[in-house]
Amino acid sequence: MSFQKTLTKVAEFKGIGVHKGKDVVLRVFPAPVDCGYLLKRSDLDSSLVPMLAGKVAATSMATTMGGDGFTVSTVEHALAAANALELDNLIFEVDGPEFPILDGSSKDFIQGFEKAGILPQQQPKNYIVVKEKIEFSDGDKLASIEPYLGFRIQAEIDFPHPAIGFQSLELEITPYNFKNQISSARTFGFMKDVELLRSKGLALGGSMDNAIVLDEKNILNPNGLRYKDEFIRHKILDAVGDIATLGQPIRGFLKLEKAGHDLMNKLVLKLGEKSKSWTEKAMVY
Ligand SMILES: [Zn+2]
What's the CA gap between 275 and 131, in Å, rounded? Predict the structure, then answer.
């Protein structure tokens, strides 16, 4: 039997927010059993909001969540780390409108959570077990989830850019695999988009310190890539974060073709609607 987990003590992350460009502090606290992930804006003394797909307010550029009169952007890289480490109950408190971007990956979140320590709790985990295939498409984008004993992702992207092109990867999502094969993959952006984004007050904190930056032909970061297929690895990272908005660990096989936060949100909402009959308590493998 698997038991729920939280942190042993608070984990703290300080850094710039990629969109507003301001320094923010994120504190992640241990939480009691059956809480799931809760979100609070400490600067606004907001209420605690469950970090569920139904609370997603926007999906362009990043996953933005909100509650009564507040939003928090770019939550997915921290959620990915929490989900991949099989943490169930946490309170995320941030003193600004977005989580710190750190290096653009989940690496520092994984390290911070592991340093704080992972604490098993006295309550069995509740999984959402996929019993039948669900599929969403939008043009040539596709996201589906189907029955599977563990949690597995197969993803592919195809960017008409000489440094990216077609990339495909399939991986079992375990703490070990995520940490070693996915967690260091950074987000990416194109120079040609930066001016437009900045005119909208976005990407003000974006730089080569927290993203892979590409011009028309090349990768501009002086040290290049961390993995030769870092782009598809980051797509999988984002999906692990977005699927955490289901509110419970998943047992299923997720397949993504060019899909981003938007399709993931639709898929998770649909899964959530159907999940009651699919939840099996205290599954044993
Ligand atoms: Zn991302």
Answer: 9
